[in-house]
Amino acid sequence: MLRIQQYQKVKSLAEAYELLQKNKNNQIIAGMLWLKMEDRTIPVGIDLSDLDLDKIIEDEKSFVIGANVTLRQLEVHQKLNLWTHDVMKDAIKDIVGVQFRNLATIGGSVFSRFGFSDILCALMCLKCEIVLYHGGKMDIVDFVNSDFQRDIITHIIIYKDHDKRCFICHRNSATDISALNLSVWQRGDEYLITVGARPQKAKQYSITGNNNEEIANKLKAQVECSGNMRASKEYREALSYGLCLKALNKIGEQ
Fold first, then answer.
1. What are phi and psi of 77, to 5 degrees?
2. List of domains in the chain
3. Is the bond preceding residue 199 a cis peptide, omega within 30 degrees?
4. Sheet containing 190-196, strands listed edge to edge, beginning at the edge strand earlier in sequence
5. pLDDT digit string (tens) for the chain, length 254 residues
6. pTM for the full model?
């Protein structure tokens, strides 16, 4: 059972950060979709909803996404999906249901760094930076690989470019957590292939090759997987090959 002893709707990020540092058990409250399933006591639940962080702002070079933007907002944002070859839409559209996606926030999804996260896997194939209140800007891959910080994500920046990329995943049943997810970013002759739900957190591999099958075989040889209730180690390794081929074929059609 989740117990929140005090609820505080803050008026500034400075106030939120100060409250967060006062007690290691204080918690930023976002969509609370996963948080509510925990058995813990939170001394102070910190609400950022008055800080105007629920907007997607486009300029000539990027999309600046507030931490309180919902997954549904990203899913249906036409210009963002046009620039990213539907990467965000494809990563989000099968997460539970529309009601869930109307509540879950991008900030909460990213900061938690869940191993099964489709969102992180998708963002890692984009030119993307995380903006932390105290820590400043950080590349998404560096953020995923960094140690936990008691900080606040304020924005996520997705930069515009013309590179090809895509996201693909396998679920054992509709709306279930992915048994494996995979994204590809073609950057010249290099393919940055991110594999998540291994079931460990997403990891990026840099691979080159003369054809799709060679690239997929190289990925399968390098990917590090293990087993759990959703899939065995061997099944995930086989999936990495199959999903990689599908993703590369999809990129070839762009």
1. -80, 105
2. 2-42 (no CATH), 56-159 (3.30.465.10), 164-252 (3.30.390.50)
3. yes
4. 164-170, 180-187, 190-196, 203-207
5. 889 899 999 999 999 999 999 999 999 988 777 766 778 898 999 999 999 999 999 999 999 999 999 999 999 999 999 999 999 999 999 999 999 999 999 999 999 899 999 999 999 999 999 999 999 999 999 999 998 889 999 999 999 999 999 999 999 998 899 999 999 999 999 999 999 999 999 999 999 999 999 999 999 999 999 999 999 999 999 999 999 999 999 999 98
6. 0.93
44, 35 contact by CB (below 8 A): no
Extract the tokens encoding 140. 């998404």
User: What value, to the nearest 5°, has the Cα angle with vertex 106 and ends 125 and 66?
Assistant: 105
